[in-house]
Task: inverse folding
């Protein structure tokens, strides 16, 4: 696999950084690939714009930051509007269908809308797992990490709430598959 | 510390074994109180038969800062004001050691004031022995945190306008478990307090009011070192367990001496050890 | 009881790797004061040390932290602190004392933007000269610069080993990029980790001279409590450790404090190279910035340009000989660093006008992009 650049954006407190760490750990420890995870740290760690990045590759990652993302996962409208123009041609954007306004985007970018927040709220009855639902959708859509590796990393990240988070991940996988089917129909 | 004896040439002064004899003569001025304080400390070590392998004498910078160089034990001379921080590292790293900080009022309460209050707050097991001579002697007699109102020093040539610290009050308010004040005149009482403090666990503080005949007492026309000691005898009163806030220290009127605080409180390295023991069981 | 060496793989931050490296090296004392972006090291140590028989203490400021580390080291415990530039500014007093009293200690500086409070959460490499010249007087320290999470672990161990071997403060000069990013960290088995401990006196206490150096210019170090009853001072001192204010004593002491590092530099210096054999343009970069340079070298080589990278791992002492060798065929040397020009001066001292040395500085809180470096490379290539 060539260098794949993933950016996650949202609001502080939505688990954006945690999600990036889970992807990185899944890729590097459980899938045996190379991965680097970074985040922009600021005094505004709760409630304002927040960004985290992961780079995954089969060879050691040199430059640790994202140049032009292959994948953007957006949990807030601000993050999406701010970062969508950085996406490279052929990139994938995965956005929460309720929290983010899809709007227009440049040609050559596939946008998937996933009701992660709604599912966390209504199906899993815990809005805190929105990010993990999104990780499920991310895994199903991008296939940059294996579901097995993700499940291990999620179990490791939430030792006290494994069952809930693994369920959230599975729900997210389903939503991801549905979003892909939806998009292939509209194409 | 001079001893004259006619009968025996191999008579040794009883505290010599506590002193680095190859460092004598010491650097302190004639009639300075530091010599008295160091002798009292050596006498306390002797009467307790103190385990010198466990003693670490630590001092900062200044006249009293040179104290650590005179004891036949492990000893360390830090940068200005840092003796207590160093002693904290010693005690936490090896709780079997017994750090004793001997330093001056400027070192401990101006540049080192932050370390003093926090070590007292944590109740780290150490004895802090402060020689208070109301000025910076080593650098030539400048004003400091204990210089009294309107006193003359080379940096308060028109009289000091700053309010001085009452050191025993600072120590008590910061959490010291043992607080005492003596003057250099009270050599025996000081020795008794040192013995008590050396056997007590926690943060202990002893202030010794001391003449500085070369600088402070000369600038303020207090006469010779002997005159200053006479004055101490006239004005000092012993009031054990008086409120340290009210323990006056005024050369014009009264110096209240005594042991003001002697209390018990869990010691820092004991707490660290018991918490660690709990964690290691898990 | 938890294990001191967490053998295995983890996906973790550079700061955590530094803490784990310290524990693997035998560090059992940490004193610190919270500061971004190094706080994670203190947090990790506060959690880990009491669980493995060590001690953590949060002091009232950085001066106290560094001084407590000296007290612990003299009490026979390997000790460390971690901070960022503003903290080092305060610790410099004690670093001088550590150099003067030849105290083994490790200081991890996760560098952020300065001067003063500067940019607490942003990356920088602007404390390179502070590490070397921070305290007053003539002395030498050791400073190592990690470029990956794994190196945060490996070089922290190396810093402890060198610090113990030469009785000198050793810095791990990390930048915020490496301190905060996460990568795979592989922790080897305890038995596979090389540990160096300070020399202890072999003579009885009455014959011990605490500052009498051996052939390697390093004196054996007794421990408080072992019965050696020795004295150490920040004043100029003779072999007994006693203050003596004459020329002879100063002449015996100060050159030795410097020479024990300078004359042993072949044992200390380390550098890594990438494609330097035929390099016409030599990039010099270190720490987080070297990751950009690695990318630039690959991109340039793909386009047929003969570019190489020289990465000092030990920055103090500076790997002069290694740089000379790497620059043998270079027509230009380009130094890329996250400051307004610091290590470039050292590179110029080594290259001595033989070929032009160009600086690409950056003071903006993140590393150069590979394109930034490519632009400079294209300007220099004929």
Result:
């Amino acid at each position: 696999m060539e260098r794949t650049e993933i950016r996650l954006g949202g609001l502080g407190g939505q688990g954006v950084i945690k999600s990036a760490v889970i992807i990185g750990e899944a890729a590097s420890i459980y899938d045996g690939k190379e991965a680097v995870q970074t985040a922009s740290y600021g005094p505004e760690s709760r409630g304002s714009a927040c960004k985290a990045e992961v780079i995954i590759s089969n060879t050691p990652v040199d430059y640790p930051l994202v140049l032009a993302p292959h994948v953007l996962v957006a949990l807030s409208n601000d993050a999406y509007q701010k970062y969508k123009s950085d996406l490279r041609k052929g990139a994938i954007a995965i956005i929460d269908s309720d929290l983010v306004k899809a709007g227009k985007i440049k040609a050559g970018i596939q946008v998937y809308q996933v009701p992660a927040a709604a599912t966390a709220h209504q199906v899993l009855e815990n809005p805190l797992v929105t990010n993990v639902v999104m990780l499920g959708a991310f895994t199903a859509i991008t296939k940059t990490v294996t579901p097995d590796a993700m499940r291990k990393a999620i179990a490791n990240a939430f030792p006290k709430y494994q069952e809930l988070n693994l369920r959230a991940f599975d729900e997210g996988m389903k939503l991801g598959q549905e979003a892909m089917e939806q998009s292939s129909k509209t194409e | 510390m001079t001893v004259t004896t006619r009968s025996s040439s191999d008579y040794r002064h009883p505290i010599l074994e506590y002193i680095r004899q190859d460092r004598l003569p010491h650097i302190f001025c004639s009639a300075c109180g530091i010599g008295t304080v160091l002798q009292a400390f050596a006498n306390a070590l002797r009467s307790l038969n103190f385990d010198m392998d466990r003693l670490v004498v630590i001092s900062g910078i200044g006249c009293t800062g040179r104290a650590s160089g005179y004891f036949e034990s492990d000893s360390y001379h830090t940068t200005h004001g840092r003796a207590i921080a160093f002693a904290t590292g010693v005690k936490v790293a090896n709780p079997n050691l017994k750090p004793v900080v001997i330093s001056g009022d400027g070192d401990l309460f101006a540049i080192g004031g932050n370390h003093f209050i926090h070590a007292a707050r944590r109740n780290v097991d150490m004895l802090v022995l402060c020689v208070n001579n109301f000025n910076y002697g080593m650098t030539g007699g400048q004003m400091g945190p204990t210089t009294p109102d309107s006193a003359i020093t080379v940096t308060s040539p028109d009289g000091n306008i700053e309010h001085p610290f009452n050191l025993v009050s600072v120590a008590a308010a910061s959490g010291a478990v043992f607080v005492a004040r003596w003057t250099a005149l009270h050599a025996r009482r000081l020795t008794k307090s040192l013995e008590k403090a050396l056997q007590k666990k926690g943060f202990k503080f002893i202030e010794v009011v001391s003449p500085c005949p070369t600088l402070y007492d000369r600038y303020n026309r207090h006469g010779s070192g002997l005159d200053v000691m006479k004055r101490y005898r006239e004005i000092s009163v012993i009031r054990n367990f008086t409120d340290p806030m009210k323990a006056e220290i005024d050369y014009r009127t009264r110096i209240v001496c005594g042991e003001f605080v002697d209390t018990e409180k869990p010691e820092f390295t004991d707490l660290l050890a018991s918490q660690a023991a709990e964690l290691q069981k898990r | 009881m938890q294990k001191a060496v967490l053998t295995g793989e983890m996906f973790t931050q550079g700061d955590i790797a530094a803490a784990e490296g310290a524990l693997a090296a035998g560090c059992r004392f940490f004193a610190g004061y919270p500061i971004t972006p190094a706080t994670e090291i203190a947090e990790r140590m506060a959690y880990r040390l009491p669980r493995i028989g060590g001690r953590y203490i949060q002091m009232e400021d950085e001066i106290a932290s560094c001084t407590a580390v000296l007290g612990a080291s003299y009490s026979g415990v390997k000790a460390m602190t971690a901070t960022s530039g503003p903290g080092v500014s305060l610790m410099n007093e004690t670093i001088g004392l550590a150099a003067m009293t030849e105290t083994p200690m490790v200081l991890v500086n996760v560098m952020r933007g300065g001067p003063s409070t500067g940019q607490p959460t942003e990356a920088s490499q602007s404390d390179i000269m502070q590490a070397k010249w921070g305290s007053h007087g003539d002395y030498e320290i050791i400073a190592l610069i990690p470029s990956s999470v794994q190196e945060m672990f490996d070089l922290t161990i190396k810093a402890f080993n060198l610090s113990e071997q030469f009785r000198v403060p050793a810095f791990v000069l990390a930048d915020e990029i490496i301190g905060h990013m996460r990568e795979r960290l592989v922790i080897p088995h305890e038995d596979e980790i090389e540990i160096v401990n300070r020399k202890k006196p072999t003579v009885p206490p009455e014959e011990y001279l605490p500052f009498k150096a051996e052939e390697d210019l390093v004196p054996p170090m007794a421990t408080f409590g072992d019965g050696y009853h020795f004295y150490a001072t920040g004043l100029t001192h003779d072999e007994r450790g006693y203050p003596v204010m004459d020329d002879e004593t100063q002449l015996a002491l100060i050159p030795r404090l410097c020479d024990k590092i300078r004359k042993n530099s072949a044992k200390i210096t380390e550098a890594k190279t990438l494609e330097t054999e035929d390099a016409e343009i030599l990039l010099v970069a270190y720490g987080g910035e070297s990751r950009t340079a690695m990318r630039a070298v690959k991109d340039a080589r793909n386009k047929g340009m003969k570019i190489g990278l020289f990465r000092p791992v030990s920055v103090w002492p500076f790997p002069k000989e290694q740089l000379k060798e790497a620059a043998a065929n270079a027509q230009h040397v380009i130094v890329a660093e996250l400051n307004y020009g610091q290590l470039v001066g050292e590179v110029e001292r080594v290259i001595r006008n033989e070929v032009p040395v160009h600086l690409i500085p950056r003071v903006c809180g993140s590393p150069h992009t590979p394109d930034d470096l490519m632009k400079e490379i294209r300007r220099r290539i004929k």
User: Anything to note?
Assistant: Chain C has 13 helices and 16 strands. Chain C touches chain B through 49 residues (CB under 8 Å). Chain C has two domains: 8-192, 270-380.
